[in-house]
Amino acid sequence: MRKEKDALRAIDVTKIYGEGDMAVRAVDNVSFGVRSGEFIALVGPSGSGKTTMLAMLAGLLTPTEGVVKIAGNNMNELSEAKRTRFRGQRIGFAFQASNLVPYLTALENVELMLRINDTYTRKNRVRARELLVRLGLEERLKNYPEQLSGGQRQRVAIARALIHEPDVVLADEPTASLDTERANEVVATFAELIHEQGRAGIMVTHDLRMCKYVDRVVQMVDGQITHIISEPEEIERMAANSEFQME
Ligand SMILES: Nc1ncnc2c1ncn2[C@@H]1O[C@H](COP(=O)(O)OP(=O)(O)O)[C@@H](O)[C@H]1O
Ligand SMILES: [Mg+2]
Questions:
Q1: In this structure, which topology does domain 36-47+79-244 adopt according to CATH?
Q2: Beta 200-204 vs 216-221: how paired, if at all?
Q3: Nearest atom, ligand 1, residue 18 CA
Q4: How far is the CA of 204 from the centre of ligand 2 (A)?
């Protein structure tokens, strides 16, 4: 039963938006799993269904068909209230707009996840500080989001996605607003933390250069998985070859 060991598993997942002539099959019968301590990239052209897939993995969107399991739990079988709580405890998000609370400092933004989960203990507050320091934000703990650069905000978002020790961490285009150097720093540290802490990480990205930090690349086109690349040499080649850049 290797499958049950996956921290996250999508089984025959389909999402159809709209009905009749207007129906869009955004995700079409997709299955894959991610183990604890494994970091994967979800790539594909714009409109291929990546964000829709991520939203279903996060339990923010219900599949039209199929099942999403987090640590063996079928999210669709949970009541709305339980799902919200489950999501808060088991999943970490670092989404594109990163959504930091503007009137909270960097440290308070991370601590917010602890408050939400009723784990706002002294020990965890120390961990929040240590995580931000680890992410290079030692001098920025007391700064508000508007006082931070794009890369610094992204790193706060990553700390917030990891502080509550989730099974699964999801990032949608975490490097969208960053220059190459910052993008590399952010994803390299994200990968390190995922591997070290044994989270199951999924990053949606347009930038195939960022694939050099992941263990597996899952490519989607028109809602379907077209390629899965897990050979390190092949991933490296893909990340190094600009022909593969999307858009
Ligand atoms: N809320 C929605 N209602 C209708 N169609 C949508 C909605 N969100 C996305 N789509 C469509 O679903 C497809 C996949 O979109 P999306 O998941 O955003 O892809 P990606 O993140 O790869 O760009 C696209 O054709 C898009 O236009
Ligand atoms: Mg998208």
A1: Rossmann fold (3.40.50)
A2: unpaired
A3: 4
A4: 8
